[in-house]
Amino acid sequence: MGPHPAVAAIRLAVRRVLHDILTEHTSTPHTADHTADPHERPPSPLVLVACSGGADSMALASAVAFEAPKLGIRAGGITVDHGLQPGSDLRAEEVVLRLRELGLDPVESTTVRVGRDGGPEAAARDARYAALDAAAVRHQAAAVLLGHTRDDQAETVLLGLARGSGIRSLSGMAAVSGAGGRYRRPFLQLDRQTARKACMVQSLPVWDDPHNADPAYTRSRLRHEGLPALEKALGKGVVEALARTAQLSRDDADALDTWASQAEASVRDAAGGLECAKLYALPPAVRRRILRRAAIEAGAPAGSLFARHIEEVDRLITGWRGQGAINLPGKVVAQRQGGRLVIRQG
Ligand SMILES: Nc1ncnc2c1ncn2[C@@H]1O[C@H](COP(=O)(O)OP(=O)(O)OP(=O)(O)O)[C@@H](O)[C@H]1O
Question: Where are the membrane-spanning stretches (predicted)?
Answer without folding.
Answer: none
